[in-house]
């Protein structure tokens, strides 16, 4: 398969990239790691007249700690996230999610920004980032704006990024979470798309849950939070029956589809099991 002809741009700064995108409008597509864009071009799903490569924007590859937050550059690769000492120390669930994603070759190229902007409901990084209350920074020739990551998705492969914008940073605020985890079920042992997945962060004090965020992947047209299941847990003493109730509520709030990877009923059952297991794992991490 061959990609269609296009004009290639390799700006040296975010400002230059934004200026090019503002000039070219919908004739241009942003190229980050390329693992999705180039595939779509090869199979005929995408045919931009211009590709604007971000490969020279090294400032967007940084993972750093700042007062009150951890900042991840949108061009950080999946392997950078997996091997980051900072993320391993602060939010181990995020490197572990990155480690489940794909082959080592793909993880060397694929970026956290691309995983988010594609907007697919089976993406591995958005669920755990939402569970950690992450926000994103979007930059264009007209300025910058931020939004909670959970507000970014509004349909299958549909996001709220506007024409000419580049996702530049992901910010994880300091928080009272005592444990977090991401569990998924795929049809292969490693590197498989999620048939269903659950990400959880909890705040445990004694034997009571004081805060919880539950996020599902491959369980609806978008990555979703299940706030009803969250509310059922807060302020209550932790036991297996409580976690089973939350798993049931999460499954009922999901709206998965039938596909070759699993029926809607099968996925709903997986959501129930994975939510309960993810809650238990995050809670146990908090007690460690």
Automatic annotation (TrEMBL):
Top-rank taxon, per record: Bacteria
Q: Where is the FAD-binding PCMH-type domain?
A: 1-177
Show the PROSITE patterns listed in the entry: FAD_PCMH (PS51387)
One matching Pfam family, short form? FAD_binding_5
Cite the source lineage: Bacteria, Pseudomonadati, Thermodesulfobacteriota, Desulfuromonadia, Geobacterales
Keywords for the protein's UniProt record, in alphabetical order = FAD, Flavoprotein, Oxidoreductase
- State the name under which the record lists this protein: Xanthine dehydrogenase family protein subunit M
Q: Which InterPro entries match?
A: CO_DH_flav_C (IPR005107), CO_DH_flav_C_dom_sf (IPR036683), Diverse_Substr_Oxidored (IPR051312), FAD-bd_PCMH (IPR016166), FAD-bd_PCMH-like_sf (IPR036318), FAD-bd_PCMH_sub1 (IPR016167), FAD-bd_PCMH_sub2 (IPR016169), Mopterin_DH_FAD-bd (IPR002346)
């Amino acid at each position: 398969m061959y990609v269609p002809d296009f004009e290639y741009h390799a700006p040296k700064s975010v400002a230059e990239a934004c200026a090019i995108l503002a000039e070219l409008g919908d004739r241009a597509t942003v190229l980050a790691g390329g693992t999705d864009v180039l595939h779509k071009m090869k199979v005929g799903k995408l045919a931009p007249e211009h590709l604007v490569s971000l490969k020279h924007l090294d400032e967007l590859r940084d993972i750093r700690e700042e007062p009150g937050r951890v900042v991840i550059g949108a061009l950080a690769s999946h392997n950078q996230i997996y091997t980051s000492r900072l993320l391993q120390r602060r939010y181990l669930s995020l490197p572990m999610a990155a480690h489940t994603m794909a082959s080592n070759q793909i993880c060397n190229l694929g970026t956290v920004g691309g995983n988010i902007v594609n907007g697919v409901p089976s993406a591995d990084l958005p669920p755990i980032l939402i569970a950690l209350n992450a926000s994103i920074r979007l930059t264009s020739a007209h300025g910058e704006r931020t939004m909670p990551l959970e507000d970014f998705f509004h349909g299958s492969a549909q996001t709220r990024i506007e024409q000419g914008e580049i996702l530049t940073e992901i910010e994880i605020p300091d928080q009272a979470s005592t444990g977090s985890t991401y569990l998924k079920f795929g049809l292969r042992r490693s590197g498989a798309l999620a048939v269903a997945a659950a990400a959880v962060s909890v705040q445990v004090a004694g034997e009571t849950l004081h805060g919880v965020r539950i996020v599902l992947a491959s369980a609806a047209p978008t990555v979703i939070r299940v706030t009803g299941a969250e509310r059922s847990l807060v302020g209550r003493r932790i036991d297996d029956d409580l976690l089973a109730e939350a798993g049931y509520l999460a499954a009922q709030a999901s709206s998965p589809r039938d596909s070759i990877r699993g029926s809607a009923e099968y996925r709903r059952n997986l959501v129930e099991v994975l939510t309960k297991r993810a809650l238990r794992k995050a809670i146990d991490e908090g007690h460690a």
